Amino acid sequence: MTPPTEESRKRTPTDYIFGKVLGEGSFSTVYLAKDVHTGKEFAIKVLEKSHIIREKKTEYVMREKEVLRILGNSCPYFVRLFWTFQDRDRLYFVLSYAKNGDILTQIDNRKTFTIHCARYYAAELLLGIEFLHDKGIIHRDLKPENLLFDENWHLLITDLGSAKILSSEKPEADKSKTRRNSFVGTAQFVSPEMLTDSQSSFESDLWAFGCILFQMVCGEMPFRGGSEYLVFQKILKLEYAFPEGFDECAKDLVESLLVIEPGKRLGAADERRYSSIRQHEFFSGRNFDDLGPPPKLGDECDGLPESEIPDYLEPGLDEEKASRLQFDLLCPGEMSVRKKSLPNRKITDLSPEEICERLEAQRKGNAYHSFVEDNLILKQGFVDKKKGFFAKRRMFLLTLGPHLYYVDPVTMTLKGEIPWSNDLKTEAKNFKTFFVHTPNRKYYLEDPDGYALEWCKVIDEVKSHYFPD
């Protein structure tokens, strides 16, 4: 009997040594991993089944898998899906490893791209969009974070869970359902039609293309605001401005793409897809059949540090290993810093003397003391409190009592308090997102610094102190 080939053999987590965490999504974590058989490195997207089911994201996961299957390895400008497999608790997508990070990181490091670099990567992005649209697929979440660099500094488009496959769309049977689900993507890059309950279209990706070009050239997003609501209002009013010195050819192209009416965007009416964009003056002299080697982004190309997955790591992924790798992401090389307190000491293990001493210092030096009714603050920090599409940043204050207050840090007003009871429960979705469940409400919270697990831990400790089993 012929043994199975490497391509056809069924895969399991033990076929890979899992290294550092490369990134996190709402219900997934991406790890750098090495194939134990070949030594090749991959990015493995690990999705928790319980989170997918609880948050009703099965459709997103299956859509991303289907889009990646359709794309295959036919276009060099997309991450490739090599294998998928599962165990009892998780799904695994084995993807191309983009070892040089993403465009956003390079923009943050360099502030702007040179026009030469912006032109080259805009051309690669346009070729990727053309290919995607030729397959009848709309990305719907194009943004610099989703544009990666491979080992040779070519573009790789990723994160296709929000994509729309036109050929597989079902007839609209429920308009209200369509309306509720019409907004996808990221606030600063979403097109106006996505905000007015209209259907997304290929032109929605052209709008995002214009936003990305704007950011590559000047380092800033065209639509910015203090909240998602304010960003949306600016998008709907087409309220943005070019900074001084913005390249004139790039400016003309951006203006041709950032048009409220989708059908009037440059490229929308082309018989040969996006030929008018290719022929724009910004791409003058550019041969789209052979773009040539990537330009240097600067004197030094700041890629990610060499990965070097340690040899002593065992293959496979379990809860303990996943927790350790995610901790390393938050505090690389700083294990001792996070162990200042005794390992088994709970946040409520305070003597009366300690409480009095800390409370006296809090009265004198904590600007938020006036909101906590003279209770000792055990933990405080900024948390984004989400409701619908919008998130508002609040200062959360966990105190003895127990109380969990939240304050508007801008107006310095108390906005509310999460009610305590024996039925209160916490749930960490990932290292940023967590929920607090009460009998009458579910609070959707996000720690911008990635300490969701710590919030859950201390809230649970306070609960067990006041509501022992």
UniProtKB/TrEMBL annotation:
<protein>
    <recommendedName>
        <fullName>3-phosphoinositide-dependent protein kinase 1</fullName>
        <ecNumber>2.7.11.1</ecNumber>
    </recommendedName>
</protein>
<dbReference type="InterPro" id="IPR000719">
    <property type="entry name" value="Prot_kinase_dom"/>
</dbReference>
<dbReference type="Pfam" id="PF14593">
    <property type="entry name" value="PH_3"/>
</dbReference>
<dbReference type="GO" id="GO:0005524">
    <property type="term" value="F:ATP binding"/>
</dbReference>
<keyword id="KW-0808">Transferase</keyword>
<dbReference type="GO" id="GO:1901701">
    <property type="term" value="P:cellular response to oxygen-containing compound"/>
</dbReference>
<dbReference type="GO" id="GO:0035556">
    <property type="term" value="P:intracellular signal transduction"/>
</dbReference>
<dbReference type="GO" id="GO:0005737">
    <property type="term" value="C:cytoplasm"/>
</dbReference>
<keyword id="KW-0723">Serine/threonine-protein kinase</keyword>
<keyword id="KW-0963">Cytoplasm</keyword>
<dbReference type="InterPro" id="IPR050236">
    <property type="entry name" value="Ser_Thr_kinase_AGC"/>
</dbReference>
<dbReference type="InterPro" id="IPR033931">
    <property type="entry name" value="PDK1-typ_PH"/>
</dbReference>
<feature type="binding site">
    <location>
        <position position="45"/>
    </location>
    <ligand>
        <name>ATP</name>
    </ligand>
</feature>
<keyword id="KW-0547">Nucleotide-binding</keyword>
<dbReference type="GO" id="GO:0048638">
    <property type="term" value="P:regulation of developmental growth"/>
</dbReference>
<dbReference type="InterPro" id="IPR011993">
    <property type="entry name" value="PH-like_dom_sf"/>
</dbReference>
<dbReference type="InterPro" id="IPR039046">
    <property type="entry name" value="PDPK1"/>
</dbReference>
<comment type="similarity">
    <text>Belongs to the protein kinase superfamily. AGC Ser/Thr protein kinase family. PDPK1 subfamily.</text>
</comment>
<feature type="domain" description="Protein kinase">
    <location>
        <begin position="16"/>
        <end position="283"/>
    </location>
</feature>
<dbReference type="Pfam" id="PF00069">
    <property type="entry name" value="Pkinase"/>
</dbReference>
<dbReference type="InterPro" id="IPR008271">
    <property type="entry name" value="Ser/Thr_kinase_AS"/>
</dbReference>
<keyword id="KW-0217">Developmental protein</keyword>
<dbReference type="GO" id="GO:0004674">
    <property type="term" value="F:protein serine/threonine kinase activity"/>
</dbReference>
<dbReference type="InterPro" id="IPR011009">
    <property type="entry name" value="Kinase-like_dom_sf"/>
</dbReference>
<keyword id="KW-0418">Kinase</keyword>
<keyword id="KW-0067">ATP-binding</keyword>
<dbReference type="InterPro" id="IPR017441">
    <property type="entry name" value="Protein_kinase_ATP_BS"/>
</dbReference>
